[in-house]
Design brief:
Layout: E1 2-3, H1 9-22, H2 31-47, E2 57-60, H3 66-76, H4 79-87, E3 89-91, E4 95-97, E5 118-122, E6 132-134, E7 148-153, H5 162-171, E8 173-183, E9 195-196, H6 200-206, E10 209-215, E11 224-230
Parallel strand pairs: 2-5, 2-7, 5-6, 7-8
Antiparallel strand pairs: 1-9, 3-4, 8-11, 10-11
Helix pairs in contact: 2-3
Length: about 230
């Protein structure tokens, strides 16, 4: 793992907000990714005889928040909505929907974390949605400790301090909760992406648990995918 330190926190946050604003319409998650993750989690839970609800899901570093919608639909949406979300997707600024209004149906609220909630975190104040909390993903609300059944992010490379970020993400998961990661391959550390060259051993050191899924460059955006069931 390669890590680029910043002189101060304020300059780091300013860079991250500016970078988010420049690509705010981008979503690097496809509905096919969300559907795959939902299927893998369901299979793993069934294999262990776990029939309880998975619990709230938290997405970290979400920009405009579309990945929050995709995971909510894949995990909890009616079948017709799932089919439409898949059919209406197109490649544009990453991935987008030809009918974005369908993805807005039944959005969650950060103030009400029921067992079917799916919410996000984004540092950019432009992310003004009831289901997106505006703030840094390494300084999460204390009331979220142990609250989530799954956490998703493809933004680990944006971390200010990778070990502190990993600790914060682990802290919000319930015992036995799932961490779903998309990690860029062979990317060097840079001013916008302070963490680079994340390899298999680095990820498992940051997030010790049981690896239930791994695929190199497996996502639609060719992120390397990890799903880890935390202890």
């Amino acid at each position: 793992m390669e890590y680029r330190k910043f002189e101060d926190r304020a300059s780091y946050e300013a860079r991250q907000i500016a970078a988010s604003a420049s690509k705010f319409s981008y979503c690097k998650v496809s509905y096919r990714d969300a559907e795959k993750y939902a299927r893998i989690l369901a299979r793993d839970r069934a294999s262990r005889g776990d029939t309880s609800p998975i619990g709230p899901v938290l997405c970290l570093g979400v920009r405009n928040g579309r990945e929050v919608d995709l995971l909510r639909i894949a995990l909890h949406g009616p079948r017709l909505l799932q089919v439409m979300a898949n059919m209406m997707e197109r490649r544009w600024h990453g991935f987008a929907s030809r009918r974005p209004f369908i993805e807005r149906l039944n959005r969650s609220n950060c103030k009400r974390l029921d067992e079917r909630a799916c919410i996000g975190v984004e540092i950019n104040p432009l992310a003004g949605r009831p289901d997106v909390w505006v703030g840094s993903f390494d300084n999460l609300p204390t009331e979220w400790t142990g609250a989530f059944g799954a956490v998703y992010s493809n933004s680990l490379d944006h971390a200010y301090a990778p070990y502190s970020v990993a600790a914060a993400w682990r802290a919000v998961l319930r015992p036995g909760g799932y961490l779903i990661l998309g990690v860029p391959g062979e990317q060097r550390a840079a001013p916008i992406d302070p963490v680079g060259l994340l390899v298999f051993d680095d990820v498992l050191k940051l997030f010790p648990g049981e690896l239930i899924y791994f695929r190199r460059r497996g996502s639609a955006w060719r992120y390397t995918e990890y799903i880890i069931r935390m202890r």
